[in-house]
């Protein structure tokens, strides 16, 4: 079973009339996700590839009261408004696919979401996929590529990088294994859903036997895993790779890779590896090794 | 973007935070003239750098005469301050310090909200001040007025700031001004260390550290006025400046292709995806190679952007190899992005070996056009798809480069 979507989850696409939104809606439907509508103020009543477009989420909910998930594809300057509309409308899960959203807008939306108990994934997330069930966004790419890479199995994947979500899923598949759910959490400084949030969900998910994480230097999200394991809130086998060992040679405060991958003393790849090893997490020295570490348990 | 002290102080002044009287001496300017303009005798002369501990590394000097100022300015401009390039020197009035406090606002990644950090014990040794002497308070980003109730998860930390900080209206207004600056300037960090209380009872921001959020640039046209900068301890190279321009203009948010950091190795790299770029840099070093640059494009950039970026990457002299590597793309069009690379390769026609590893949408077409590009230019090129991992292809390139060197 998926940790973020199940069969029959009804999905909305905000910004469906844009190039990226339209492509994502098609990719989701192609994979069996039930995209029931799109939002574009002023274009209500029209259709995009047969999907009805609404002026507002409120209008969409009048016709489809079961909508549980939205995926947002609007330009960065409209992101805050779009996220707040989804929170106001009471949608339980918001996937912010938009990149380069100002951090102040992200913090504003996350504060509002927390108050309402809404799950925000992203920003700068590509989405997530539960093989054989559905996907949000374009994780896995077009068919038939997505089916070459993803098949239902016991490995959960969490990644700070969209490309590496797919690359690692491929390494898993190449080793003869399958994935339970793969999530791209985004590489920004502030993210709505972090490793610890998802590990709690993977812990409860019977299908997931083990989890792989692609992490990055900078920020503190990896350290929260240590706490989680110490508190026995996550007990399944976990393998992690943390990119950016080389960044030690760079000056503090500089970011490289993603916005959240900031060079900070005490928060580098090596420090994170040490902290995680201390609680029994399997640490890979290069990303290809992740699957070797996890294979005996999956 | 990180600001220099003098730029941060200009912002402070705009928000009513008191700063010491001072002037800047830029490279090529006459320090004596600036000294006369300022008209003070007891001065602090401060190197303007983006990072590093200036105070502990002789980057700040106290001067009492024209000659001392002149000599200090010249010395600081010629100084390498922990690898940082000194962009300018600021001459400032010397304060009669009674107390040094610490004040900053920064995003906390654990609670995902801004947090106010204050200590009575500011100054150069702030990192050694005990946790019990540092007050942290969550700020509600939705409220323009600072409220002084400590909220979760910092509630354990001794209730309210009113018990922690001296009861002083100017300090309170400085905190509010700091918050105004943080919000209105789209800052990621505003730090005053030290926030000085003088013997006359004035509160003055003696230092300023401000980082702006580049993603908010669309609502700050005035940021274009800041000089180009890099934190690598030198001025940005022409290549870095040219690469940055690729992501400006109308299609600024359609994919990213303006990331180029010049490094001192001889292997040019062209990575796709931020995460893959980190893993690949690590793999490159492990294979015994040294990168000539760090470069990454992502988010399905158009052909023209990738072309421009490839031209920048290939323009560095003394290259011994090129590694084009990316994971299995989700939606970046391999054909379109490779077309941009091939366009540049056709023009530059490098003589060094090239190794390519990529997969994803339109991979067949992308690989085919790269192969044609190889044939018509007679490149020494090896192409790999997803059956071979990225790190393995770093080893392949290392073997070819080493063979060529023997």
Please name the defining characteristics of this protein.
heterodimer; A: 298 residues; alpha/beta; Rossmann fold; 10 helices; B: 406 residues; alpha+beta; Dna Ligase, domain 1; D-amino Acid Aminotransferase, Chain A, domain 1; 3 domains; 26% strand
Summarize the structure.
The complex is a heterodimer of chains A (298) and B (406). Chain A has 298 residues and is an alpha/beta fold. Helices cover 33% and strands 22% of the residues of chain A.
Structural class category of chain A: alpha/beta
- Helical content of chain A (DSSP H or I, runs of 4+): 25-40%
- How does the overall form of chain B come out from the CA principal axes? elongated
How many helices of chain A? The count is 10
Structural class of chain B: alpha+beta
| General form of chain A | globular
Order of helices and strands of chain A: EHEEEHEHEHEEEHEHEHEHEHEH
Order of helices and strands of chain B: HEHEEHEEEEEEHHEEEHEEHEHEHEHEH
Structure description:
The complex is a heterodimer of chains A (298) and B (406). In chain A, the strands form two sheets. In chain A, strands 3-4-2-1-5-6-7 form a seven-stranded mixed β-sheet, sandwiched between helices. The mean pLDDT of chain A is 95. Chain A has helices at 19-30, 57-63, 76-88, 103-116, 145-149, 162-174, 195-204, 221-230, 269-277, 289-294; strands at 10-14, 34-39, 47-48, 51-54, 67-72, 93-96, 119-121, 127-130, 134-137, 152-159, 179-184, 210-216, 238-243, 282-283. By secondary structure, chain A is an alpha/beta fold. Chain A has two domains: 1-126, NAD(P)-binding Rossmann-like Domain (Rossmann fold, 3-Layer(aba) Sandwich), CATH 3.40.50; 151-298, Rossmann fold (3-Layer(aba) Sandwich), CATH 3.40.50.261. Chain B is of the alpha+beta class. Chain B folds into three domains: 21-93, Dna Ligase, domain 1, CATH 3.30.1490.20; 97-219, ATP-grasp fold, B domain (D-amino Acid Aminotransferase, Chain A, domain 1), CATH 3.30.470.20; 236-405, Rossmann fold (3-Layer(aba) Sandwich). In chain B, 32% of the residues lie in helices and 26% in strands. Chain B contains eleven helices and 18 strands. In chain B, strands 7, 8, 9, 10, 11 and 12 form a six-stranded antiparallel β-sheet that branches. In chain B, strands 13-15-14-16-17-18 form a six-stranded mixed β-sheet, with helices on both faces. In chain B, strands 1-6-2-3 form a four-stranded antiparallel β-sheet, covered by helices on one side. In chain B, α6 runs antiparallel to α8 (303-314) and α7 (274-286) crosses α11. The longest helix of chain B is centred in the middle third of the chain and has 16 residues, at 169-184. Chain B is elongated, with a radius of gyration of 26 Å. Chain B starts with a helix and ends with a helix. The model of chain B is unreliable at 149-158 (pLDDT under 50). Chains A and B meet through α4 and α6 of A and α7, β15, β16 and α11 of B.
